[in-house]
Design goal:
The chain has about 150 residues and is α/β, with parallel strands linked by helices. Helix content is about 40%, strand content about 20%. The protein has five helices and five strands. It has helices at about 5-25, 50, 60-70, 90-95, 135-149, and strands spanning about 30-35, 40-45, 80-85, 100-105, 125-130. The relative contact order is 0.17.
């Protein structure tokens, strides 16, 4: 499902609020939402520290919540909004979910999936990047600056 560009920022703003919550809880500040029929059906943020689970990325948790909400194992009519470019693990999950769309904010030059192979998401998944990238990047940078003190 393609969503008009004017809505991308609104949805990404929701993901950013979740990333801020992660920041407050001492988690790497990444937030994600899943949208179906212009309605948010799942929300999540990184919880690797809280759950003591290195796979508890915002994307993984949001996808799991969306599967549960819809009672489906594929999400072709859904779009995932995430504040940071997904890692290879999350991009693989996006592939297996047959997600309709992926919209992310800041690129991840260290661990983002595009550093390995740009076609990891499903071939039918449309990908849009750079939505509220500056805000997303600033939040990540603030977090790591705070952690180094």
């Amino acid at each position: 499902m393609l969503i008009g560009i004017r809505n991308h920022e609104d949805y990404m703003q929701q993901a950013l609020m979740l990333a801020e919550q992660a920041f407050e809880e001492g988690e790497i500040p990444v937030g994600a939402i899943v949208v179906a029929n212009q309605r948010i059906i799942a929300r999540a943020y990184n919880q690797t520290e809280r759950l003591n689970d290195p796979t508890a990325h915002a994307e993984m948790l949001a996808l799991t919540a969306a599967f549960d909400f819809l009672g489906a194992k594929y999400l072709p009519d859904c779009t995932l909004y995430v504040t940071l470019e997904p890692c290879v693990m999350c991009a693989g999950a996006i592939h297996w979910a047959q997600l309709g769309g992926l919209v992310y904010g800041a690129s991840d030059e260290n661990k983002g999936y595009t550093q390995y192979h740009e076609s990891i998401p499903h071939k039918k998944t449309f990908v849009t990047s750079g939505i509220l990238a500056l805000e997303s990047r600033q939040l990540i940078q603030s977090f790591f600056t705070k952690m180094r003190k």
